[in-house]
Automatic annotation (TrEMBL):
The lineage of its organism: Bacteria, Bacillati, Bacillota, Bacilli, Bacillales. Keywords: Lyase. Its EC number is 4.2.1.24. This is Porphobilinogen synthase. The gene is hemB. It is an enzyme of class 4 (lyase). The keyword Lyase applies.
Length: 324
């Protein structure tokens, strides 16, 4: 054995301090974006049945939630609205006093330095549950763009720092950028859901947002999970239309796509650690099958390693607490 030559990689794994010294990928509190589901009404803080630890929260209970978020060192939230009324055109999405607009004003007044991201879509607000105008059973692309731009402008007027359109209509970034610029919001960036697959991992979110389609599915506008080049075309289009961030959703099953997006485009990449990914870990942890902290930290680190600059995750509060 004395003449045997080989590399001793274990030299750099001898202790926790040595491993920390050479660690290549780091997860920080500043990387986390915490999703919130705000609802109309009073004295509401109801757990989402399929998402333990995630709540529907009314404005009168939002103060305590935000105090906790800020005290943990989380710098950014993304707001999803659940309106009391729905209609075919999703009018509450772009109403001046819509739930996301009101929540934005509420939070911004109390925490002006917190970055508020507004999810810009229609599915939570339409009676049919689709992300656009529907005629004869078909989701109309171009007619929907005006409503999306109108929604984005109303959210910016309410104080949103970032607009995050998630609808996957063709041309949505261009329409929203034009609408924001025309309204004088040149400095409000767009965090585009550029790569959004038609995924089975969205079930618990639809429970939380009350956004399950009332007919059909979203495969005509969300992407086929089998496709790779399509993702790059979508990201390219959004960059050309004026996107400032690129979201890859879901994250865990599409780490290969995330790496390619990061390598090809000069923009911050955002991983969306979606509801199904969250709920499966929660269920396994509650049954004692996995160590929740260890598995969450491992999977979020894998997203950073794959190229994510930021991570939207329902685990944000837990992770911030663990990092402390």
């Amino acid at each position: 054995m004395k003449d045997l030559q080989f590399n001793r990689h274990r030299r750099l794994r001898q202790s926790e301090t040595m491993r920390a010294l050479v660690r290549e990928t780091h997860l920080r509190k500043e990387d986390l974006i915490y999703p919130l589901f705000v609802v109309e009404g009073e004295n509401i803080k109801n757990v989402v049945p399929s998402m333990p630890g995630v709540y529907h929260i009314s404005l009168d209970n939002l103060q305590a939630e935000m105090d906790e978020v800020v005290s943990l060192g989380i710098k950014s939230i993304i707001l999803f609205g659940v309106p009391a009324e729905k209609d075919e055109l999703g009018k509450q999405a772009y109403h001046d006093h819509g739930i996301v607009q009101e929540a934005t004003r509420f939070v911004k007044e109390r925490y002006p330095d917190l970055v508020i991201i507004a999810d810009t879509c229609l599915c939570q607000y339409t009676s049919h549950g689709h992300c656009g105008i529907v005629k004869d059973g078909k989701v109309l692309n171009d007619e929907t763009l005006d409503l999306l731009a109108k929604t984005a402008v109303s959210q910016a007027e309410a104080g949103a720092d970032i607009i995050a359109p998630s609808n996957m209509m063709d041309g949505f970034v261009a329409a929203i950028r034009h609408g924001l610029d025309e309204a004088g919001y040149h400095d409000v960036p767009i965090m585009s859901y550029a790569v959004k697959y038609s995924s089975s991992f969205y079930g618990p979110f639809r429970d939380a947002a009350h956004s399950t389609p009332q007919f059909g599915d979203r495969r005509t506008y969300q992407m086929d999970p089998a496709n790779r080049m399509e993702a790059l075309r979508e990201a390219q289009s959004d960059m050309e239309e004026g996107a400032d961030f690129l979201i890859v959703k879901p994250a865990l099953s599409y780490l290969d796509i995330m790496r390619e997006v990061k390598d090809r485009f000069n923009a911050p990449v955002v991983a969306y650690n979606v509801s199904g990914e969250y709920s499966m870990v929660k269920a396994a942890a509650q049954n004692g099958w996995v160590n929740e902290q260890e598995i969450v930290m491992e999977k979020l680190t894998s997203m950073k390693r794959a190229g994510a600059d930021l991570i939207i995750t329902y685990f944000a509060k837990d992770v911030a607490n663990w990092l402390s």
